[in-house]
Each structure stands twice: as C-alpha cells, then as structure tokens.
Write a structure and sequence with these properties.
Elements: E1 2-6, H1 14-27, E2 42-47, E3 53-62, E4 67-75, H2 84-99, E5 103-106, H3 113-121
Parallel strand pairs: 4-5
Antiparallel strand pairs: 1-2, 2-3, 3-4
Bound molecules: coenzyme A.
Length: 138
C-alpha cells in the first residue's frame, strides 16, 4: 500500500472516493443533509500495490480551534479490515504532530457501528452526542 497527501481534494483521486463514501452514507441513512465534502478540504489517499486508489480521508486544519477535523473517510468495501483506514490515520497523526495541533476531532452517526469501532480501536474517545430536531414547518 502507498499513501499520498493532497493539499486540496479537487482534481485528485480523493474526490471520487469521497463522493462514493458520501453516497454510501446517505443511502444507508448514516449522515444527514449537511455538506461533508468541501473545496478547501485536504486529503490523504491510500493506493493498492497495483496503484489503484482504495481509500480516502479528508481533513481540515481548524486553526481557530487548534485542532484537525475529519469531515469524511472512506475505504472501498472489498479493501476493508486490512488496515487501510489505520494507515491513513497514522499519516494524519503525523500531520498533527508536524502542525503542533494537540487534537484530532471527528463525528459520525451514532448508528455507524463500523466507524465507531474503528475510532475506538485507534484510541479516539467518544465525547458528545449530536441532536437533530425536525422543525414542523407548514
Ligand atoms: C469505517 C471505515 C473507514 C474503516 O476502514 P477500514 O480500512 O476497514 O479500517 P481498518 O482496517 O483500519 O480497521 C481498524 C480496526 O477498526 C475496527 N473495525 C473496522 N471496521 C470494523 C467493523 N466493521 N466492525 C468492527 N470493528 C471494525 C477493527 O478493530 C479493525 O482492526 P481489525 O481488522 O484488526 O480487527 C470503513 O468501514 C468505511 O469506509 N465505512 C464506510 C464509510 C464510513 O463509515 N466512513 C466513516 C464515517 S465519516
């Protein structure tokens, strides 16, 4: 596996993977209608030994919060449970060290058990619950 870092997701191998991941999450009702791919998001992409892009992780340097934030990550289904996400995460942790940011934050649906299990395995601590109220508009 090879890992590549991009300063922006546009015109990179990250974008189609992230779009596919967003579609998968929307279809499975594991994310709401908010935008989770942005023009200014940076990206880490994992490539198979054959040179195919198999996973992507987007991130933002939130200077105002002194932290990095992960809007979205995705690994192709046939490449899961092989350490692809973990490899991208390790590159992000190295970025946080380089940028001297003491925290990496992210969110996910409470029902996304695979993502929550992955975060837990990597030592990431669940700290809050996001609520949503559907306003009864006429
Ligand atoms: C969540 C996701 C990114 C994990 O990617 P991955 O490359 O399979 O993760 P890894 O192989 O690095 O897994 C690391 C560890 O996390 C845990 N883990 C990962 N997927 C798991 C699952 N489905 N069930 C239970 N534990 C899991 C395991 O402990 C795993 O180690 P192990 O395989 O040695 O047991 C992937 O399942 C995915 O793309 N899901 C759809 C999109 C998504 O939910 N994105 C995150 C929300 S933004």
């Amino acid at each position: 596996m090879q890992i590549q870092h991009y300063e922006a997701v546009c015109q990179t191998q990250a974008l189609p993977l992230l779009v596919r991941g967003w579609h998968e999450l929307l279809t499975a009702d594991l994310t709401d209608g908010t935008i989770i791919i942005g023009w200014d998001h940076k990206a880490i992409v994992a490539f198979s030994d054959a040179g195919m892009p198999i996973g992507a992780l987007s991130w933002i340097d939130q200077e105002w919060g002194n932290q990095l934030f992960i809007p979205l990550a995705y690994v192709l289904p046939e490449h899961r449970r092989q350490g692809v996400y973990t490899a991208m995460w390790n590159v992000l942790v190295a970025k946080a060290v380089e940028l001297k940011r003491p925290v990496i934050a992210s969110g996910t649906s409470i029902r996304n058990t695979a993502c929550r299990a992955t975060m837990a395995k990597l030592g990431r601590i669940e700290r809050g619950i996001y609520t949503r109220f559907d306003v009864p508009l006429p």
